[in-house]
Write a structure and sequence with these properties.
The chain has a four-stranded mixed sheet, with helices on one face. The protein has a three-stranded antiparallel sheet with strand order 3-7-6, with no helix packed on it. Helix content is 25%, strand content 18%. It is of the alpha+beta class. The protein is built from four helices and seven strands; from the N terminus they run βααααββββββ.
């Protein structure tokens, strides 16, 4: 399924992405984004635009609310289990390879992985949504990427149609010290 975005929608996504990039200024990269690996990846600004555009496209396609991904790293512990699109969708995109990356942090009960690819590298206005797969189904030996500690899901493995959505209960962020926020 191809989702087309208007110039105004892309602009709003790019604004969010630029602000997200600025908010994370000076943050330390995870190992799979650092050192030699960094040379193989797209720039941080480009990655942020692509990610936000894909999340918005999925939100638009399924008519579901997107979680606003704009917070400093110090808040990550409170938000790490929030989905990209409510109630339980994690949007993953093709970056520099052809398969969709899924990381151990994504493998949680009732989480649905949405595979996507931004098709238009000049204007980010067209997103292909491959479909969905339950996160727990991604843990297959043939998809394991030991160098990245991830699984690489081929686009043809995604199911079409509306993903199963868990009943949404109140989202409560837990303070690492145990208190509700």
């Amino acid at each position: 399924m191809i989702v087309s975005l208007s110039k105004e929608e892309v602009r709003a996504c790019a604004d969010i992405a630029l602000n997200r990039w600025m908010m994370k200024w000076g943050s330390i990269d995870r190992p799979n984004y650092a050192n030699e690996n960094k040379r193989k990846l797209e720039s941080e600004v480009t990655a942020n635009i692509r990610t936000i555009v894909a999340e918005y496209a999925v939100s638009k396609l399924y008519k579901l609310p997107m979680v606003f991904p704009f917070y400093p790293n110090s808040e990550h512990a409170f938000r790490k289990n929030f989905p990209d699109v409510l109630p339980c969708l994690e949007v993953k995109t093709v970056r520099t390879r052809k398969n969709i990356p899924v990381f151990p942090k994504d493998i949680r009960e009732d989480v649905v992985i949405i595979g996507s690819k931004v098709l238009d590298d000049d204007y980010y206005s067209d997103v292909e949504v491959y479909g969905w797969i339950m996160a727990e189904e991604c843990v297959r030996p043939e998809w394991k990427d030991p160098d990245e500690n991830s699984w690489r899901i081929p686009p043809e493995a995604f199911k079409t149609g509306t993903p199963p959505l868990k009943e949404m209960s109140v989202l409560v962020a837990k303070d690492p010290r145990g208190a509700n926020v």
